[in-house]
């Protein structure tokens, strides 16, 4: 049996009210009505920075990360390849289970910051798609397109502290401007290699070719 405390209800996202687009409030379960009421009474400015409609629009756009397949595997004709969000999720798990790494900035909550960065680092691909070296697009142009896409997504979220954090995380990763960013870039490579080994084990792809290991990493 689930147990829900009042404190957890006050942190429930305020976009519950947007569910009224799909179902009448009178038929909404009591728990959701309580959560909506609690969130409306929450005066925390961080929680209030994202409006219900902005959150829904942002999350709907992010759904593309679940349905867009990783282009490298598509080009290698892997059947039912992983999505962008599949890749980011396992990177987040890598950060979560990693031991403390000497030199990581503890003021940034160390690997918790890395978990966030892993979740954010490919977010712009919801708009621009998964650009690979085979596409003939320069690293500079790829970065420009992704920055523009990320700005759009942050604006869609309505600005505020949440959008700023996403923007800062993405820029830190893109520019490799911290030890945390370098660690997450290593996770990016390791996750790709692990996925390749799993596909080879399942006979989905042959990774023994000379060009395989070079091209997927050239944008890292």
TrEMBL record:
- The protein's required cofactors: Co(2+); Mn(2+)
Identify one Pfam family in the record: HD_3
Tell me where on the tree of life, at the top rank, the source sits.
Eukaryota
Matching entries from InterPro entries are given as: HD/PDEase_dom, HD_domain, YfbR/HDDC2
Do you know which Gene3D superfamilies this protein is assigned to?
Hypothetical protein af1432
Q: Pinpoint the HD/PDEase domain residues.
A: 80-202
Q: Does the keyword Hydrolase apply?
A: yes
A GO term for molecular function = metal ion binding
- What keyword terms does UniProt attach to this protein? Hydrolase, Metal-binding
Which enzyme class? Answer: hydrolase
Look up the record and report any one GO term of the cellular component aspect.
cytoplasm
Q: Does the keyword Hydrolase apply?
A: yes
Record field: catalytic activity: a 2'-deoxyribonucleoside 5'-phosphate + H2O = a 2'-deoxyribonucleoside + phosphate
Give the EC number(s) under which this enzyme is classified: 3.1.3.89
Subunit structure comment from the entry: Homodimer.
Instruction: Family membership, please give it.
Output: Belongs to the HDDC2 family.
Instruction: Report the protein's function.
Output: Catalyzes the dephosphorylation of the nucleoside 5'-monophosphates deoxyadenosine monophosphate (dAMP), deoxycytidine monophosphate (dCMP), deoxyguanosine monophosphate (dGMP) and deoxythymidine monophosphate (dTMP).
Write down what this protein is called: 5'-deoxynucleotidase
């Amino acid at each position: 049996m689930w147990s829900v405390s009042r404190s957890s209800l006050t942190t429930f996202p305020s976009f519950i009210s947007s569910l009224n687009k799909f179902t009448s409030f009178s038929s909404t379960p009591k728990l959701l009505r309580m959560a909506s009421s609690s969130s409306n009474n929450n005066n925390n400015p961080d929680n209030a920075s994202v409006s219900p409609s902005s959150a829904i629009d942002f999350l709907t756009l992010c759904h593309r990360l679940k349905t867009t397949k990783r282009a490298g595997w598509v080009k290698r004709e892997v059947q039912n390849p992983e999505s962008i969000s599949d890749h980011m999720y396992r990177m987040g798990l890598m950060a979560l289970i990693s031991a403390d790494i000497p030199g990581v900035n503890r003021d940034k909550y160390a690997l918790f910051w890395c978990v966030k960065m892993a979740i954010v680092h490919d977010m712009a691909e919801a708009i621009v798609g998964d650009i690979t070296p085979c596409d003939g697009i320069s690293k500079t142009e790829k970065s420009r397109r992704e920055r523009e896409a990320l700005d759009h997504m942050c604006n869609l979220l309505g600005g505020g502290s949440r959008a700023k954090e996403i923007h800062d995380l993405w820029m830190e990763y893109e520019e490799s401007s911290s030890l945390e960013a370098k660690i997450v870039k290593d996770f990016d490579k390791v996750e790709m290699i692990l996925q390749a080994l799993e596909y080879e084990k399942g006979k989905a792809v042959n990774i023994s070719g000379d060009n395989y290991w070079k091209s997927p990493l050239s944008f890292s």
